[in-house]
């Protein structure tokens, strides 16, 4: 039976990371522990984070091409109440497409979000109030 490992970057500021959970078999877990014990990595999380970054770097060209093709914003995109009010007042609607972190201001009401946001596609994490997420549920892909 596999063991569960929770990966979290403790060096980052709170809110800058998302917690993921993976299940590993005992042999993989033992090999990770051996590399940690031998000093190659400071802990399990360090090894797993490094492995993920290496894979992302290996596929970097594909990621860049896909980001460009899909017109995704890469990184952090924050939408303030003033941003959304300006969009609403212009009669337009946003199609939010982010690879990374999209955040909607805590003072944004569900009504404003619905009036200003047509769709949300986030590959990564969406930070918004529970009420705004609930209001946009049918528009989040």
How would you sum up this structure in a few lines?
By secondary structure, the protein is α/β, with parallel strands linked by helices.
Characterization of this structure:
Strand 4 (about 95-105), helix 5 (about 110-115) and strand 5 form a beta-alpha-beta unit. By secondary structure, this protein is α/β, with parallel strands linked by helices. The protein folds into two domains: about 5-60, no CATH class; about 60-140, no CATH class. It has six helices and five strands; from the N terminus they run E-E-H-H-H-E-H-E-H-E-H. It starts with a strand and ends in a 6-residue tail after the last helix. The protein has helices at about 25-35, 45-60, 60-70, 80-90, 110-115, 130-135, and strands at about 5, 20-25, 75-80, 95-105, 115-125. Residues about 5-10 have low confidence and may be disordered. Helix 4 packs across helix 5 (about 110-115). It is elongated, with a radius of gyration of 19 Å. The strands form two sheets. Strands 3-4-5 form a three-stranded parallel sheet, with helices on one face. It has a two-stranded antiparallel sheet with strand order 1-2. This is CopG family transcriptional regulator. InterPro entries: Arc_rbn_hlx_hlx, RHH_8, Ribbon_hlx_hlx. It holds the Pfam family RHH_8. One of its GO terms (biological process) is regulation of DNA-templated transcription. It comes from Noviherbaspirillum autotrophicum.
